[in-house]
Every structure is written in C-alpha cells, then in structure tokens.
Amino acid sequence: MTIDEILKSTGGVIHCGAHRMNDNVDRAFCSDLMSDVLTLGCQDILLITGLANVQAIRTAEMADISHILFVRDKTISAEMLQLATENDMVLAQCKSSMFKVAGQLYSAGLDPVY
What is the H or E stretch that residue 68 is in? Predict the structure, then answer.
C-alpha cells in the first residue's frame, strides 16, 4: 500500500516527505510505547502513534522506520518536522483514533507486523 493510499483511507494529511507519496508500505504497527517500536525487525512499515514528540521521530530513526502517521489530531511541531526532514521521513497526521485507523488500513489490505 502506498503512502498516498494510506492517506486516502484514513483522511490523513502529509506534513513532511511529500516526495515519498508513492513509497510502498508492507505492514503497520500501532504503539505509543517507543520501547515496543524498538523491538521490531521489519522493513517498510508504517508506525501509527499518538505520541507526537521528538522522541517518536528519534525512535523511528533508530528502528529504521521512515513512515509515521500521528493519530488523534496530534500537533506535529517544527522540531519534529526538522528532524524528520533531516532523516528523509514521511510524517502524516489524521484526526481519527488509533483503533479506527488500524481497522481502516487493515480493511484496505495493509498487513499487521504481528
């Protein structure tokens, strides 16, 4: 599933990495616990989180995750955008809950990590 398809399915908007709209994502993982994110051993995944701070960006960088969707209409700060831009990441945001987004993407054919 491409980032463009993910945004259409969730009503999301992109804030950083628009040049990567055609990137393919194979799986998604939902978590607000960044320690859980660090245990993942997958490539080409989408991190779905409500933890909107610089630590989420740094954790994704350490876990080689380039695509993050922030849920619950969380605000993406200028510092988060700067760090994501430096790391060539996609940052997107939507208004829906994590539960709803996970269901929408699963129904659209995106596989879970577990």
Answer: strand 67-70
- H helix or E strand, kind and range, residue 16: strand 13-16
Burial environment of residue 9 by CB neighbours within 10 A (0 to 12, 13 to 18, 19 or more) = middle
Tell me the pTM.
0.95
CATH number belonging to the domain at 3-112, selected among 3.40.1390.20, 3.40.50.880, 2.60.260.20, 1.10.630.10 = 3.40.1390.20
pLDDT means per 10 residues, the chain with 114 residues, are 97 97 96 92 90 96 96 96 97 98 97 92
Q: What is the residue extent of each domain of the chain?
A: 3-112
Residue 30: beta bridge partners? Answer: 48
